[in-house]
Amino acid sequence: MNSQMVLTTGQEAMWLLLMVSAPILVTVLVVGLVVSIFQAITQIHEATLSFVPKLIAAVLVFAIAGPWMLSTLVDYIRRTIESIPTLVL
């Protein structure tokens, strides 16, 4: 196993991490922005008002995209484990 293989594996893992976490992060970011604009317009500054919608949105995204996220991670782990014999010389 040379340094190029290590860097390629690390790059692939980082790309997978970004791809799997992006739906949740983008959804929570958009919901937080909408709630912040609502709070600024109405001048209601309640901490739970920003927390609860983000939590509900994250749960909904997990319910919708969870199977895809899980299958993507399982495929990556399966490929990584199956490549172990080729890495050991």
Question: How do you describe this structure in short?
Answer:
InterPro entries: Bac_export_3, FliQ. Helix content is 90%, strand content 0%. The chain has helices at 3-42, 47-82, 84-87.
Description:
InterPro entries: Bac_export_3, FliQ. Keywords: Bacterial flagellum, Cell membrane, Cell projection, Cilium, Flagellum, Membrane, Transmembrane, Transmembrane helix. Role in flagellar biosynthesis. With 89 residues, the protein is an all-alpha fold. It has one domain. It is 90% helix and 0% strand. 0% of the residues are buried.
Structural category: mainly alpha
Q: In oligomeric terms, what are we looking at?
A: single chain
The major beta sheet can be summarized as: none
N-to-C terminal Cα separation, in Å?
A: 8 Å
How much helicity do the residues have? over 70%
Number of strands: 0
Structural shape: elongated
How many independent structural domains?
1
Summarize the helices and strands and which ones pair or pack.
Layout lengths: L2 H40 L4 H36 L1 H4 L2
Helix pairs in contact: 1-2
